[in-house]
Amino acid sequence: MYRMPMEKGVERGRALGAVATPPDLVAFMVSLAAPAGPRARVLEPACGDAPFLAAFTERYGSHHELVGVDIDPAAVEQARRNVPFATILEEDFLLWQPSERFDLIIGNPPYGIIGDASRYPIHVLRERKPLYKQRFRTWRGKYNIYGAFIEHAVNLLVPGGRLVFVVPATWMVLDDFAPLRRFLALEGGLEVYYMGRPFPERNVVAVVLAFQRGGQGLILYDRDPRSGVRNPVVRKTGYQGEMIRFETPEALAFERQGIPLGELLEVYFAARSPEIRRHPSVVQEPGDGLVPVLTGRNLKPGWIDYERCYSGLWMPREEAPSLRFFYGFPHIVVGHTKGARVVAAR
Q1: Does pLDDT of 337 surpass 60?
Q2: Is the pLDDT of residue 340 over 70?
Q3: Which CA distances in Å does 184 have to 79, 152, 189, 212, 218?
Q4: Domain locations in the chain?
Q5: What distance in Å separates the CA atoms of residue 152 and residue 54, rounded to the nearest whole number?
Q6: 144 is catalytic
Q7: pLDDT value for 341
Q8: Per the CB 3.0–4.6 Å rule, which of 59, 139, 171, 313 could disulfide with 293?
Q9: Do residues 219 and 190 lie in contact, with contact meaning Cβ atoms separated by under 8 Å?
């Protein structure tokens, strides 16, 4: 079998949205995944070299039925060497339909938006995106591929089965993930562990999602910076899929002291990328009288970079109000950058 050179393997992994999981994070997640019976059927999707299956075996034994799935043939080869007693399949997890369900699904699914290489990180799957959109009912907007992994994994669990994923925290608050939150609330109970920024090479705020099919409610855990103990800070027995926030007594008291922005400002949402690209005045080459179509990357703390074009799109300045009327007068732009930091500029 052809083996991909190391540097090319790393590049392909990035193009597929893969991020290596630190060993201490793997160990923590495996501690949440104790099998309920003497022999469990265990799956690691997008397994890479199968660190979760290896750690699960070390902690709970190799007598369980272990399955790993990865789309990358080089990763599959490595996983088979690392965990020789597991079944490792070369499959696209999002299109894979096994004949049996699983007691436990654990792992670090890829994250990123699928599109062409000039704009989006996961470009090698762009031809499959229409299939994914048809298949997953929680898919909304640009969507981040990890949301589809969560939905598919939940559907592959037996009743009472458990899912343990580490994912970006964006699904907790962004509107694009509202269908996913409602889906999770309908299908089971959630435990969410805030992890901060656990990936040394990625500025990503992440959480561990521990989901039990058929359960109910939500518990949100935070880590005490002094003791390291993870304590529950939010409990909702009747969780229905609303935004997940740190609604601690201190946070709620702080909010009550201020005035909601909606009472001070008129809040509007920017045009989405597909709408911009369909606009008849938008072109893909610069020219006289044209200005760059700005993206979140143009937004800096306290200022906006109007010169650099990250979008690859241009349009006449005077046509901007035809996309959104408020583009025609001065306004404050608020957005979140990678790492969930909120920035604003006028």
Answers
A1: no
A2: no
A3: 30, 11, 7, 10, 10
A4: 6-252, 265-345
A5: 23
A6: no
A7: 55
A8: 313
A9: yes
Nearest to 133 by CA among 118, 113, 116: 113
> Which is the catalytic residue, given 51, 93, 102, 108?
108
User: What is the DSSP code string of 181-206?
Assistant: HHHHHHHEEEEEEEEES--TT----E
CATH code linked to domain 6-252? 3.40.50.150
CB under 8 Å to 221, separation ≥6 — which residues?
191, 192, 193, 194, 230, 231, 232, 233
Q: Which residues contact 82 (CB under 8 A, 6 or more apart)?
A: 49, 50, 54
Active site (annotated) includes residue 254: no
* Residue of 56, 93, 199, 211 marked catalytic: 199
Say how far apart CA 33 and CA 138 lie, in whole Å.
25
For the chain, the C-alpha Rg in angstroms (whole number) is: 22
- Beta strands, E only, 144-270: 157-168, 188-196, 206-213, 218-223, 230-236
Q: Which CATH number fits the domain 265-345, given the four candidates 3.40.50.10420, 3.40.30.10, 3.40.1350.10, 3.90.220.10?
A: 3.90.220.10
Burial (CB count <10 Å: 0-12, 13-18, 19+), residue 118: exposed
User: Among 45, 51, 109, 198, which one carries the catalytic annotation?
Assistant: 109
Look up 109 and say whether it is catalytic.
yes
Where b means 16+ CB within 10 Å and e means fewer, 211-245 reads bbbeeeebbbbbeeeeeeeeeebbebeebebeebe
Return d(Cα 171, Cα 215) in angstroms, integer: 20
Q: Which long-range contacts (C-beta less than 8 Å, at least 24 apart) are formed by 246-255?
A: 246/194, 246/220, 246/222
pTM score, whole prediction: 0.78
Catalytic residue among 56, 93, 111, 132: 111
